[in-house]
Design brief:
This protein is an alpha+beta fold. It is 61% helix and 17% strand. The protein has a six-stranded mixed barrel.
Length: 443
């Protein structure tokens, strides 16, 4: 029994040495050892990985910020989390039942249609009009927040007339108090195409910060739609949940209820738009990820030269009894250390940059503009240009938003680890069958 126990201890020691020795050699050759071309090359490779990680974090966080702000605005206004068409006889009961559900944040009955709008100056524009009751609009604080209007003020304005987007008001040449003529059409089975019109006062103008909403969106009281003769008033329930990600399961639950004509979640309603955004993100990730590929190629050729220089050391290790698996693990561990150091350093630098990217860019632009202003006062330049990234004269947004996701960080870190390991493995594969005796004889 004692002999068996001693054998187990020896095996554990040997297995531990098989891992610790390659790890010790990898750390010494790449980090703690004396300066050499090998360690310098690995440190530069790690720096290249870090630069790639920083670039990916900043680019993806800005893209996420731009996309999510627009998506959240759509979900709060035109899309909702769930859109359901209910039979008119069950509409009020169904609305009250949903508002009592603990998973539901708000329920807004509305009618929507596209109308041709004409101002007194004969300017025209096509608007997507939502007909909502003032009290329902006041209850939906998220809707009002997306349009940058107070719920109480929104309800009062909606009672008085139409709430119009700022860009649409500019296109039509109107302001608060102006009169607009709304014209639409519908198909009657017996009479054919029938037209209708309505004159309304512009009671308020909103600015959401998104051109698509501000240029082609308006809100009117739902009571006026019901008063129009022949108006195809099909009411839709806009349902917002406390957790938008549960919309699909909530839709599956509501589909079993009687009186529902049609129902769909925000993922299905916006599927073409979200698919385009998803494809755009993947392509951007691949394009910026080319940085990792370039660094991996540099690591590959650098490691080939380094392994050739260390052929004597590798032959000595082989002669001392280290097998090929342990020797190859030295270089694999070096690749992991390079990727890990680059990923950690890149994430540590990239996240703060992504969180404050707007301030950093504006600060840099401010310094440049100050320098140009100094040159202008000295007479070396003729004027000070507007160097802002999102100048109001060109772009509709005023700042650079950013959103950081842990899932993105995990994918970036995985890329940072995989590329160096593959590059190092391919570099060592050419030398793993070299005989140590031949190497030592040539030395």
């Amino acid at each position: 029994m004692i002999k068996t126990s001693d054998e187990k201890k020896q095996r554990r020691m040997l297995s531990g040495m098989r891992f610790r020795l390659p790890l010790y050699i990898a750390i010494r050759w790449s980090i703690t050892g004396k300066k050499s071309a090998h360690s310098s090359g690995l440190k530069f490779a790690s720096l290249g990985i870090a630069v790639g990680v920083i670039a990916l974090i900043v680019v993806l966080s800005v893209m996420n910020g731009l996309q999510l702000q627009y998506i959240e605005s759509l979900l709060e206004t035109t899309s909702f989390h769930i859109r359901a068409r209910i039979e008119e006889s069950n509409l009020d009961i169904f609305t009250d039942t949903l508002r009592k559900n603990r998973l539901v944040k708000s329920v807004t009955p509305f009618i929507e249609t596209n109308l041709l709008v004409q101002s007194s100056e004969d300017r025209q524009n096509v608007l997507r009009v939502m007909w909502i009751d003032p009290e329902d609009l006041a209850l939906d604080s998220g809707y009002c927040k997306a349009l940058n209007i107070l719920p109480s003020a929104a309800a009062k304005s909606l009672e008085e007339g139409i709430i119009l987007g700022s860009e649409a008001a500019q296109i039509l040449g109107v302001s608060e108090g102006s009169i607009l003529t709304l014209r639409g059409a519908f198909v009657d089975p017996e009479e054919g195409i029938q037209g209708y019109s309505e004159r309304v006062k512009v009671s308020s103008i909103f600015r959401s910060g998104y051109y698509e909403l501000d240029a082609a969106f308006a809100i009117m009281p739902r009571l006026k739609a019901k008063d129009l003769t022949g108006f195809p008033a099909s009411t839709i329930l806009g349902i917002k949940l406390i957790n938008a990600e549960k919309s699909i399961s909530f839709v599956s639950m509501l589909e079993q209820e009687p009186g529902i004509i049609d129902i769909e979640s925000w993922q299905n309603y916006n599927r073409s738009f979200f698919s385009a955004l998803h494809t755009e993100k993947i392509l951007m990730f691949l394009l910026v990820g080319i940085i990792f590929l370039v660094v991996a190629i540099n690591i590959h050729y650098s490691m080939r030269r380094s392994i050739a220089r260390k052929s004597r050391d590798l032959a000595i290790l082989a002669a001392m009894g280290m097998n090929q698996h342990s020797i190859s693990s030295i270089f694999m561990l070096e690749g992991i250390l390079v990727g890990l150091a680059g990923a950690l350093f890149g994430i540590a630098i990239g996240i703060p940059i992504a969180q404050h990217v707007d301030g950093i860019i504006n600060g840099a632009i401010g310094l440049i503009e100050s320098f140009i202003s100094f040159l202008y006062r000295l007479g070396f330049v003729k004027g000070v240009p507007d160097l802002r990234v999102f100048s109001p004269s060109i772009f509709y947004i005023e700042g650079i938003p950013s959103r950081i996701f842990i899932s993105d960080m995990a994918v970036i870190a995985a890329f940072a680890l995989i590329f160096p390991v593959i590059a190092v493995y391919l570099a060592y594969r050419r030398f793993r069958n070299v005989s140590p005796l031949e190497v030592l004889r040539s030395e």
